Amino acid sequence: MSALPLNPGALAAPKSHRRATEEAPWVRWALIGVALGFLTLFLFIPLVTVFVEALRKGWEVAAAAVVEPDARAAIRLTLLTAAIAVPLNLVFGVAAAWAIAKFDFRGKNVLLTLIDLPFSVSPVIAGLIYVLVFGLQGWFGEWLRDHDLKVIFAVPGIVLATVFVTFPFVARELIPLMQAQGQEQEEAARVLGASGWQIFWRVTLPNVKWALLYGVILCNARAFGEFGAVSVVSGHIRGETNTMPLHIEILYNEYQFAAAFAVTSLLAMLALVTLVLKFLVEQRVKGEKTLAQDAR
């Protein structure tokens, strides 16, 4: 029997496929060079500059700027704000993600839209909204004044503004993962007689623990560095309502460059620690995925 004639397109397809997916070496190196150039120009050089400027006048000046009373107050307030805002967003993110991924209800799309609201609204506008609501001339201003309660230009306002700008991070990390996992495991646990809390703690939470930690890390990083919304509601009271970013701005505007860069370097180190934690979580997730694929 004679061999069937080969289709010319069958031979051309692999060649064109290779051309579409395998670029020439110079193209790959050019893309890598462009990426490294952008990283160097917009990330590495500014980061190195921060530490160089912080130490320009010596370790003593930098250390004195960090332990100065107003700086210590700003550091404490930043840590306090993050310590309050992150757990609140953790609870909200888990509840919102669980509701959206596991249940169907009216207003589900509205809730999804509201979760994304801080991504589309300027933080400055968010701060102004809180001023209009809780300020002396705001909706609840008279009631707060009569009850000797202060929100704006005080710690509660700073916490509220930080919560607003950071609450999408945990929910947005959990929602896609929970939706991809489906409801089969929860339904099986329910059939076996598990209660709602048992299903959450023993089935749902273990499956999303790394995504949850990843969202918490991102939320914490944003809480440390938030400037716009906090600037509006803080009042810039030294030693009382200035977070680290606001304290850095004041020092820089007063031409105390060494002190400003010293506090900035501390904030940069917190950001680097956050990046390291983020990298470790990503590696752990990749490792677990690899083990799961090998087990199959």
Which features would summarize this protein structure in a list?
mainly alpha, 296 residues, globular, single chain
- Strand elements, count: 0
List the total number of helices. 15
Overall radius of gyration: 26 Å
The arrangement of helices and strands along the chain is HHHHHHHHHHHHHHH
**Helix percentage:** over 70%
What would the average pLDDT be, to the nearest integer?
86
User: Ranges with pLDDT <50 over ≥5 residues?
Assistant: 9-13
Oligomer: single chain
Shape category? globular
Report the sheet-strand fraction. Answer: under 5%
Major beta sheet summary? none
Name the structural class.
mainly alpha
User: What distance separates the N and C termini?
Assistant: 44 Å
Give the helix/strand layout:
Blueprint: H1 8-21, H2 25-54, H3 59-67, H4 69-102, H5 108-115, H6 117-120, H7 123-134, H8 141-146, H9 155-166, H10 168-181, H11 184-191, H12 196-225, H13 228-234, H14 244-253, H15 257-295
Helix pairs in contact: 2-15, 3-15, 4-9, 4-10, 4-12, 7-9, 7-13, 9-12, 9-13, 10-12, 11-12, 12-15, 14-15
Short summary:
With 296 residues, the protein is mainly alpha-helical.
What does this entry look like structurally?
The protein is mainly alpha-helical and 296 residues long. 80% of the residues lie in helices and 0% in strands. The chain has helices at residues 8-21, 25-54, 59-67, 69-102, 108-115, 117-120, 123-134, 141-146, 155-166, 168-181, 184-191, 196-225, 228-234, 244-253, 257-295. Helix 7 (123-134) packs across helix 9 and helix 12 runs antiparallel to helix 15 (257-295). The longest helix is centred in the C-terminal third of the chain and has 39 residues, at 257-295.
